[in-house]
Amino acid sequence: MSRSLTPVNRVGVDERAAALGRRSIKTTAKREGIKLATSMIDLTTLEGSDTPGKVRHLCAKAVCPDPSRPEIPSVAAVCVYPALVGVAAEALRGTGVQVASVATGFPAGQTSLDVKVVETREAVAAGATEIDMVISREAYLAGDDARVAREIEAVKEACGDAHLKVILETAELPTYAHIRHASELAITAGADVIKTSTGKSTSGATPGVVLVMLEVVREHLWKTGRVVGVKAAGGVSNTKTALHMLVLVKETLGDDWLTPDRFRIGASSLLNDLLMQYAKLDGGHYGRAEDFSKE
Predict the structure, then answer these.
(1) Are 275 and 65 within 8 A, CB to CB?
(2) N or C: less crowded end of the chain, CB within 10 Å?
(3) What is the CATH number of the domain that holds 237?
(4) Which InterPro entries does this chain map to (predicted)?
(5) How far apart are CA 123 and CA 128, in angstroms?
């Protein structure tokens, strides 16, 4: 099936994204940036070896990332597989930290729509307040936009009151024009948030990809007044990259978007780096990796 794509100047996007990445963030601004980035994290564990104990430990860290520094906020959400949603929901009850679950045959999305809908409903029933779904990339790459939209709409309905984050898996999309088009398609079909990657592919939230998605969200806001969030996931593993993301958001969408309600960072290892960088600002030396739990 053929589709018409709006051209995107890759060189221009990459140059702007790189220029914004060269902004210098020092001392007080860096300290506040680290706290802000922490508050935006979807702290994630998506391994076949995940256990209830590991998830409970992760939830405790999500609520209080560094007990020695109470000014560091809780993260935005904990993201787990559907089978462990109940464990996370119990551990996070009353804390304000959201329970997110991947669904719809994550990460490949190669299951039937009926299975995707059932999995979503079961995750929400178990306590998930946010669902991260993957689009059917084989349908998208074949030009079957109608099927992609239909599946997003069905999953959105199955979410009920839970927020829907739609994962584009940008590493599998050929060009920025495709990323732009897939972003528009997901938003039109009902996504509350558009997300870069599953974190399981070769690349994910590159600055150029995130900038393209932020610009789509900006244009949608101008046209409709509707706020759609963005989640950068896949490869945001250190403080420098996370702060670069915050600069991209600020310069593209403004200060109003510097909130966990509108921007998220999907990560497993980022939080420890943020905590170590904060410790250096706080005491003049890096915290030791062993001072922070790995989960």
Answers:
(1) yes
(2) N
(3) 3.20.20.70
(4) Aldolase_TIM, DeoC, DeoC/FbaB/LacD_aldolase
(5) 6
pLDDT tens per residue across span 167-207: 999 999 999 999 999 999 999 999 999 999 998 877 889 99
Which residue in 275, 244, 231 sits closest to 38, CA to CA? 275
Instruction: Determine the Cα–Cα distance for residues 71 and 170; give it in Å rounded to an integer.
Output: 35
Q: In this structure, how many other beta carbons lie within 10 angstroms of the beta carbon of residue 12? A: 11
Percent of the chain with pLDDT over 70: 95
Which two tokens mark 70?
């109470």
Q: What is the per-residue pLDDT for 86? A: 98
2 located within any domain: no
Nearest of 62, 127, 63 to residue 100 by alpha carbon: 127
Q: pLDDT digits over 153-178, tens only?
A: 999 999 999 999 999 999 999 999 99
Q: Is residue 292 part of a domain?
A: no
Whether residue 3 lies inside any domain: the answer is no
Residue 134 belongs to some domain of the structure: yes
pLDDT of residue 202: 74
**3-state class of 210 per DSSP?**
helix
- Chain-centre distance for alpha carbon 62: 15
- Lookup result for tokens 């100047």: 9
Domain limits at 271? 10-287
Q: What is the pLDDT of residues 75-120, one digit of tens each?
A: 999 999 999 999 999 999 999 999 999 999 999 989 999 999 999 9
Distance CA 232, CA 289 (A): 24
Look up residue 291 and give its DSSP letter. G
Structure tokens that stand for 133 in this block: 């779904």
Count of the separate structural domains present in the chain = 1
Give Cβ neighbours of residue 203 (< 8 Å, ≥ 6 apart): 170, 171, 197, 234, 235
- For the CA atoms of 194, 204, 144, 230, the dihedral, rounded to the nearest 10 degrees, stands at 10
pTM for this model (two decimals): 0.95
d(CA 117, CA 104): 7
Enter the tokens of residue 276.
């170590």
